[in-house]
Amino acid sequence: MGMEKNETSEGSLFSLFLGCLAILGAIALVAVQVLYITFGKSKGLIYSSDMLFFSGCAVALCLIHMSILLFGGRNMKRIFVIVISCIMLVGAVGLIGYGYMHTKAQESLIRTVSPDKNYAAIFKTDSNSGKIRYYRDFYTLFGKEKEVIPFTSKEKLHCQWVSNDVCAVTGISKDGDIWQYAATFGDRGDGITYSNMINSLSVEWLASNGKKNNQLEVTKEKIIVNIDGVKEEFDFENCVQYGTLALVLCDEENEAKWMISLNEDAHLDPELLTVEKNGTCSLLKVSMEKEKPIIFTSMGNN
């Protein structure tokens, strides 16, 4: 009899311990959700996935249910336990189901991760205004707003990483014009001096694939692109720079045509701030489909 009482006592203490852990976990989750709603959004924070908010609430319900059973499960009538379990189960499944349907219907949040997994960019489109907000990863679970992209898109955004620290984001405006934005994370200089992309590209370029008819040239007034015999010229005033790594070339109607990005081997001369010899850049055609970048190698200053 004594051994049975000891075992029962130890079992009760263990259940009490697990119950305390469960209720503490539930309180922590609820606190995170409350802080997110009250302060997080005003500080430009969002969950990196719309499902995380609903999943967190569902897990909190399950932990509360677990704590109730562990604290008083043995003293509760079976019918009461069944009712509580059904209510909590329906609530949790309902939250996850609603979150899934909400996320699927909105399709407004896109999270894209760099090939080397070191960077992530989040883009969220306001379904009413069409505004697109760009967020940087913040402790993986969250995104912190960086800026509002000066475009709207009537279609789902297309994201393509040109390198480990440059992501090309393409969309189509309500007027049907295609545009491109670049999320950049790195630097090719000393990390302090701001470099102008047009100046950085002012060297002699040679197509790495050996095609002599593929040309990239920066003159005193414009950028000339010649791919497979099709020559295009872009005035500097129609070129949009993003960070210090990407330059989008637009035509006279401001429709994006090409993007030039400096690859990771494109180191800048510390004095001239131009790409040193043997450094490379990528020329990416603006498209809503995945495109293969055309690589050019720097032959040094003219």
Number of helical stretches of at least 4 residues: 4
Tell me the radius of gyration.
28 Å
Largest sheet, in brief, is:
6 strands, antiparallel
Order of helices and strands: HEHHEEEEEEEHEEEEEEEEE
Number of strands: 17
Unreliable sequence segments: 1-5
Average of per-residue pLDDT values: 82
Instruction: Give the class from helix and strand content and strand pairing.
Output: alpha+beta
Q: Alpha-carbon distance between the termini?
A: 96 Å
Helix content: 25-40%
Report strand order across the widest sheet: 9-17-16-15-14-13
Overall 3D form = elongated
Please state roughly what percent of the residues sit in beta strands, choosing from under 5%, 5-15%, 15-25%, 25-35%, 35-45% or over 45%: 25-35%
Structure at a glance:
The protein has 302 residues and is an alpha+beta fold. It is 31% helix and 33% strand. The strands form 4 sheets. It has a 6-stranded antiparallel sheet, with no helix packed on it. Strands 1-5-4-3-2 form a 5-stranded antiparallel sheet.
